[in-house]
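Residues pack. Consider this:
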Amino acid sequence: MLTRWQARARQLKTNLHALALAYRDPRTPRIARLWVALVVGYAFSPLDLIPDPIPVLGYLDDLILLPVGIWLALRLIPPDVLADCRAQVQA
């Protein structure tokens, strides 16, 4: 079970790095760039939709909104751009 979580953490790290590279790529559509900026901004923002001190719900928004936002950002980026960015991350 621990190795599965480690693999997911590595995949998340790779995807975030690929998103950062895709954000800078001129082939990435504007809407995808805007969405990536919003997701990253929300991830690093001290403000949340639901404050963290509220039991369970405070962390639930981070556990749901961020993965969904990353998933949508990956879908908005053209596959060839994303493949090139993932190849750069692996190199």
